[in-house]
Design a protein that fits this description.
The protein is an alpha/beta fold. The protein contains twelve helices and seven strands. A seven-stranded mixed beta sheet has the order 2-1-3-4-5-6-7, sandwiched between helices.
Amino acid sequence: MQLGMIGLGRMGGNMTKRLEERGHDLKTYDPSVESTADTLEELRDQLSAPRSFWMMVPAGKITEDTFRTLLGLAAPNDVIVDGGNSNFRDSQRRFGEAREKGIKFVDAGVSGGIWGLANGYCLMVGGDDDAVAQVEPVFVDLAPEDGYAHVGPAGAGHFAKMVHNGIEYGLMQAYAEGFEVMKSSEFDLDLHEIAGIWRYGSVVRSWLLELLYAAFEKEGGHLEAIRGYVEDSGEGRWTIAEAIAEDVPVPVITAALFARFASRQDESFAAKVSAALRNEFGGHAVQAAKQA
């Protein structure tokens, strides 16, 4: 089928290649790289009605601006797919705004990272049946076998992806803590080797573990060249916020997000407060602050 891909970064570029390899007709727009169109209007004119647009741009202002522009350019029965990590509430709103103009909207949660070109992308899709059906040939060819599902109405795709990423936070933190315990132990353990054998037959084997093994392979078993500074892109926060709204306990995901916050501190002020209090009430010694 024919598709207009907007955004040719690490994800959008590889998704375009995967679809072209499977016979789809891709028209593209990205102001930063060579594309078939120089503007969104030109991209529209390169597509046959009813058109299918796929936004693969960062969540937030860029997605909102792109969506607004497409609303002004698209015609009734065209479909707009948001494949970025947008908040599901924004997707529900965009669905409603598009419907007022007779334009279809689909939210597609996409997982697969830079490996998706070869391995395929797991797709969690939300939207009306007719809108999803219009783009389904693309979903099927982007995903590996059994890796795509229409999970529910508008917003459901990005909701499922949000929770997916919250779970990812917890898994990553569990691996991180376990390997730090081993690194700090009295044993001179080969962490690269252990990550390697855990990939086979172990209860904790996973793709994330395979990626950790690859990181040890590339960076060395102690990851000396990597700073332990961990960002978050928002989905963990949103998962926790929804859990609070639903009275659902999510202690692992919450602790994993807070661990990311802690990783960004050169020195914790909270720890200074605790040290000062221990000195005041118990006379416990304090250590002098490091001089810059």
